[in-house]
Every structure is written in C-alpha cells, then in structure tokens.
C-alpha cells in the first residue's frame, strides 16, 4: 500500500470511530433525559392487563382509581401548602420550635391519611379480584411494598410514594 491509501484508510477509521462515539453519546443523553412515568396513561391498564381483568373488573378498577385521585387531591394540596409554609420560615432568623413541631405533626397527619386512603383503595382492588387472581395480586403487592421500603441509594432521585 502506498502512503495515500494508508492515509485514506486512517481517515476512514477515524471517521467511523467518531460516528460511533457520537451515536453512543446521543443514545446515553436520550436515555437519561426520558423520565420514568409511573403514572403514565397506561399505568391504569397495567395491573388490569397483568391480572387479566374482565371488562367489568377493568371499569370498576378505573372507577376506583378516579375515586382515589379525587380523595387524595385535597391531602396533597394540603401537604404542599404545609411544606411551603414550613420551608418559607427558613428566611426568618428565629422560628419557634413549637411552631415547627406543630407543622411537622400536621404534615405527618396528612401523610397518614394519604397512606390510609391508599390502603383502602388496594383493599377495594383486591376484593375486585377473583379467587384465582388474588395470589398474583398479592405477589404484585408484595413486590410493590418491597420496592417502596427498600433503602434509598445515594445519588438516585427518590420516587414519590404514589400508587
């Protein structure tokens, strides 16, 4: 091979490697920018499809989900306003400890009510299942609870506790 051919193949290899690197970088950027969407439009259908709900069960399940969202909304709004009120006090030089404790207790109460509403919702969904669907539902709930209760890994964003 003469020098001109060697130079041609060298530039071709450099160009190919450059394209591969750009493609890899593009793939990584696109993968990291796509947020996980636990409450995506298909989330309602996921469990129903997984358990093999009949059309009647599916409509009742969707009704239960709508009722849960409606019931949770005031509690979530209250939590937002309580957190805003609490952290809005950071700019003040002195905040009474009793005031902070009272706000934290109200926040805890709201979390407790949300958890209770979610528990009642899942009780309704379980009662909707046929005896044949219940073992699979129970296994699914066990995995969900384990996922929610596993220790948080440093550096990862924590998902909100929503069903």
Would you write up a description of this structure?
This protein has 163 residues and is mainly α. It has two domains: 1-34; 39-149, Four Helix Bundle (Hemerythrin (Met), subunit A). It has five helices and no strands. Helix 3 runs antiparallel to helix 4 (97-128). The longest helix is centred in the middle third of the chain and has 34 residues, at 55-88. It is flat, with a radius of gyration of 26 Å. It holds the Pfam family Metal_resist. The chain crosses the membrane at residues 7-30.
Gist?
With 163 residues, the protein is mostly helical.
Helix content percent band: over 70%
**What structural category do the secondary elements indicate?**
mainly alpha
- Gyration radius over CA: 26 Å
Averaged pLDDT: 85
**In oligomeric terms, what are we looking at?**
single chain
CATH class (first level) name of the largest domain: Mainly Alpha
What's the order of the H and E elements?
A: HHHHH
Question: Roughly how many Å apart are the termini?
Answer: 66 Å
Task: Give the uncertain stretches in residue-range form.
Answer: none
Q: How would you characterize the largest beta sheet? A: none
Overall number of domains: 2
Name the CATH architecture of the largest domain. Up-down Bundle
Which descriptor suits the 3D outline? flat
* Beta strand %: under 5%
Secondary structure tally, helices: 5
Q: Predict the CATH topology of the largest domain.
A: Four Helix Bundle (Hemerythrin (Met), subunit A)
β-strand number: 0
Walk me through the topology.
Elements: H1 3-33, H2 43-51, H3 55-88, H4 97-128, H5 134-149
Helix pairs in contact: 3-4
């Amino acid at each position: 091979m003469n020098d001109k051919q060697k130079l041609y193949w060298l530039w071709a290899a450099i160009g190919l490697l450059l394209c591969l690197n750009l493609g890899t970088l593009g793939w990584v950027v696109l993968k990291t920018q796509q947020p996980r969407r636990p409450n995506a439009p298909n989330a309602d259908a996921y469990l129903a499809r997984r358990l093999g709900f009949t059309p009647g069960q599916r409509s009742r399940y969707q009704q239960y989900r709508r009722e849960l969202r409606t019931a949770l909304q005031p509690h979530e709004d209250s939590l937002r306003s309580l957190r805003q009120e609490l952290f809005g006090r950071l700019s003040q030089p002195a905040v009474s400890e009793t005031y902070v404790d009272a706000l934290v207790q109200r926040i805890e109460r709201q979390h407790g009510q949300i958890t209770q509403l979610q528990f009642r919702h899942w009780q309704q969904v379980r009662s909707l299942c046929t005896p044949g669907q219940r073992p699979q539902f129970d296994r699914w709930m066990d995995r969900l609870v384990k996922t929610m209760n596993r220790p948080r890994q440093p550096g990862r964003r924590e998902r909100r506790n929503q069903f």
